[in-house]
């Protein structure tokens, strides 16, 4: 422990953190964050293929776990750059919103939970998205797969947010074959869309195969020599339900746990899809001038077959298992290939990185939280990113427990009952309720979870509201240093306070009954037109409301989170 703290102290000093001003933005140099210049510029802008998987855990890829068969992904990653210090968000909507906008959740109003199908909410309409910037740079932009960024009005749809074409599902979870999506008992509808219309009659084909087929069709009909292409393939896999075709389950028949077996099959289908896409890139002359990015959107849910081992936590938590992402970059344009990058990177960084790579002007977009990482990825240069705000969720508070581990002086800096997490240099601080913090072993036993679940279950610490870890030394978050290092706790709390002053109000409106598919022809479609009843359903939470109302809302929120957790565990989200 002494050695770990000594090492972390040295690393902190090396970044100058103990002497820096903790109330100012995180900048290496003033020009670094939104710098559109890149070290290597191809003769023509490269074709960009971004493949995003859903709920794929850290231990759910072959080069992390040989039990999972992903030969294509392993080969592409080994020939490119593996991102082994790469972070996403713990659940779907937050990761997708930060990818598309380059901004933290606190700057989009989406810092609380996900956008549910009946909520009149979506990605802020006044923000210029990544595909819109790429369109301005001359790109053809296409999206295939899961959206999950709101659709209550047509202005929220992918085709209104920068994509020339869209084919996929708008909600967070659908049946792989029927494309039915439910938001509670009796609230189910069809969710497969072609552009801005419902794609009726397409059921029966497994979604990963259907989406891959669409991507290959786009690649075959587009002329790569005349216009650069941005392809965003947002796969439903490996999210529940676990509906793997039997042929893909058979190779995993030796796995004792049935859920793990089906989940692994879904990962193998993803691997096959990527193989087919990369084959098409070569066949239709994209490959030589292309950049392929592979990323998960969040950690896995162990109860449904996923695995984040040996990381702590799971999907929906701010432990490493929820936010440390699987990711890599494969491209002939990389200068320094076949390596592992330990440079700190976050999903918001793709926005300025890709716009810069496309020759666009990143400076036109103010307020980005991401950094241009191409020199870091391509050449191995030092990462311009020194910290990551994982999130601040003011609506998720830990009640009835006094702040601990922060000291009286630190308590004045930050309300540690608020759910928040931040990474600064080697250090990571969590406050409030970070989520279930178990270390879940690989699900190799047939009776998992059962008694197997308790082998690595956390004990004690139920009265805590502050945790501190040196992630570089202790990536599995087993040694809480909050009491040993109150000085670091104080500094990171000050960073949270700084970010909180820049936050916009949370937008989390109540469900709108007009969204019910029964009222809209049996499908999930936009249901608000113009300014129709907009204020009635506007769920922006503002500061300064009287305590009585706030207490009532918080009671409802606690009930909501209890139900939300139950739904996650029962595969309904």
TrEMBL record:
Its cofactor is Ca(2+). Coiled coil: none annotated. The keyword Plastid does not apply. Residues 46-359 form the Sulfatase N-terminal domain. It comes from the Eukaryota. Keywords: Calcium, Glycoprotein, Hydrolase, Metal-binding, Signal. SUPFAM superfamilies: Alkaline phosphatase-like. PROSITE patterns: SULFATASE_1 (PS00523), SULFATASE_2 (PS00149). InterPro entries: Alkaline_phosphatase_core_sf, ARSB, Sulfatase_CS, Sulfatase_N. Gene3D superfamilies: 3.30.1120.10, Alkaline Phosphatase, subunit A. Pfam families: Sulfatase (PF00884). GO terms for molecular function: metal ion binding; sulfuric ester hydrolase activity. The keyword Hydrolase applies. Residues 1-16 form the signal peptide. Belongs to the sulfatase family. This is Arylsulfatase I-like. The gene is LOC120020920.
